[in-house]
Amino acid sequence: MQWDDLRIFLAVARDESLSAAGRRLRIDPATVSRRIARLEEAIGAALFAKSQQGYALTDAGQRLMDHALRAEQSVAAAREEIAGQAGRLSGQIRIGAPDGVANFLLPQVCAAIADGNPDLEVQIVALPRLFNLSRREADVAITVSPPTAGRLTVLRVTDYRLHLAASSDYLASHPPVRGLADLQDHRMVGYIPDMIFDKELDYLVEVGASRVALASNSVSVQLNWLRQGGGIGIAHDFALPSAPELQRMLTAEVSLTRSFYLVCHAGDARMERMNRFATTLAEGLRSEVARLEAEVDAADQARGALNPAGA
């Protein structure tokens, strides 16, 4: 059994497609198919079952997956040790994250990491769902709840805040909001209820909103609805500097706190490269959340100074 065959096997297992695996590996799908057939012949068992949904692992494929992942980790560790990168990160690392952190935090944090590591390739996969690290959908994932199953290492990165927000134009043209009860007279923006993939994202329950008139599974879509004067919703404080037309509301009554967790496959914890990347990423996220939230607080203080109570 050759490592190169296992590398192709892993690509098909992750992408569930010969053509997608070929693109990942930069080889044609016919070659991928031949190499998988050769590996199956050597093992004496079918590794994939083909269906309309793609290539799914058989029981034999699932058993081989664990061994192939360990081989991949060993090869990566050996390359890193032999290369002697003198503290620099290199190679490709894929981060899976909800689209809020993927849009408003990771771009600048990862760009800063890349500045100091020119041989590093960073990929951000922004999806409103949980990631399967065992299948290597991502090398590391950022979550809002710590996972409770799987061979994973979990690092609590930082807390972040969320508040009710709306555009100045919306508030100027609709009834005043003096308390939570007044929200019943307003159009609410939030998640599609049956597509909330983590209980920590069910924000509007905490403010007693019974109906979401404008709903999306994407934080970015929700924020843009708020910016366009679509209604009132819960927004991440760290996203508000990118939307100066929005202002926080009822901050004394509604102030939510959530946490980000950095999750890696347990086998990767032994790799010095992944440890360094995870540490650098966590430090960058902490710093960026603190910077952006301080910027929002300063903007609110300035707004209050310009519009003192009773003026």
Protein model, in words:
Helix content is 41%, strand content 21%. The chain is α/β, with parallel strands linked by helices. Among the domains are: 1-84, Winged helix-like DNA-binding domain superfamily/Winged helix DNA-binding domain (Arc Repressor Mutant, subunit A, Orthogonal Bundle); 157-257 and 292-306, D-Maltodextrin-Binding Protein, domain 2, CATH 3.40.190. The strands form two sheets. Strands 3, 4, 5, 6, 7, 8, 9, 10 and 11 form a nine-stranded mixed β-sheet that branches. Strands 1-2 form a two-stranded antiparallel sheet. 33% of the residues are buried.
- Percent of residues in beta strands: 15-25%
Q: Kindly provide the radius of gyration, computed on alpha-carbon positions and rounded to a whole number of angstroms.
A: 23 Å
How far apart are the first and last residues' alpha carbons, in Å? 78 Å
Order of helices and strands: HHHEEHEHHEEEHEEHEEEH
Mean pLDDT across every amino acid position: 86
How many H/I helical runs? 9
Helix content: 40-55%
CATH class of the domain at 157-257 and 292-306: Alpha Beta
Which superfamily, in CATH terms, is the homologous superfamily of the domain at 157-257 and 292-306?
Answer: Periplasmic binding protein-like II
Task: Please name the CATH topology of the domain at 157-257 and 292-306.
Answer: D-Maltodextrin-Binding Protein, domain 2
Q: Give unreliable regions as ranges.
A: none
Based on Cα principal axes, name the global outline: elongated
